[in-house]
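Appendix B, record 7
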Amino acid sequence: MTLIRIPKIWESLENEITPETHYYNRRQFLKTLVNAGIGASLIPLVGCQKSSAQNALENSLNLPKISPLRKNPAFSKVDRPITDENLAGSYNNFYEYGGTKKIWLKAQKLPTENWKVEVTGLVKNPRTYDLDDLKKTFPIEERIYRFRCVEAWSMVLPWIGFPMKSLIEAVEPTSAAKFVRFTSFYDSEVTQGPSFHLGALPWPYTEGLRIEEMANELAFFAIGIYGRDLPKQHGAPIRMVTPWKYGFKGAKSIVKIEFVETQPATFWNTLVANEYDFEANVNPTKPHPRWSQATEKFISKGPGLSWDIKETLPYNGYGEYVASLYST
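Structure tokens (predicted):
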């Protein structure tokens, strides 16, 4: 096991936890793609002292508890420790708010009041849900899942939400529905994207699944984490969780779910198709074009402690649930 120090949560984590080359290479690729210059510097928390930044982070995570909370015994344990809550809340991908991991403060601009999720398309029972509807209509439970980023780092997170298949049952897709498109909140005044210039990006952020994938037992909508409502930096108030796929498949802050006949365009696959394929299953034998996926940097403990290198598992360790979806 290789031990490496993690800095305190208010310190910059990006260069410590994930190699700089991953981000610089990604940015350089996009620079070539759109013929635009990309700044490599990070955005500091201007005017914030360590103590005030720490307080702000903790306040962003100190949300109402979800109660009563049933723990699903089938997904109550993972052979790794749960990642420290503050660390998970300060190290996030959320491209609508920037291209670094330090987006948690900017993400607090996300307006979550009176949130609505429209479920439409090829369904017999189209409906628009608010958050109270979701909590009352569907079986809310906690599931502890591995989380694997395409950038070769990983966590273990205690999500709270409901299985996607329960939504399928409620809206009754027609036989013509073969795929599902998930659309994230977008407002150019609020979700301004990365600070470096990339030219035109395919906003809003969209993701997609085959309907068989959405109906799988693992597929999950998260409305909470660590026993509380979902913080904004995690994709409040509702996000996708598909633990056998790379993290970019998990659309955040969902406002629309559409059942469609043909494979939908998705954000990263549209932007860089040879690096971010539609299926995006975790596969240690299929390297990213610019780095290996054979191992991952597992992040678990809090400030000042360590993370370690682990072997990547096929389907992120969930092959028994999903491998049959991809048999030829």
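Remarks on this record: The radius of gyration is 19 Å. The longest strand covers residues 153-163.
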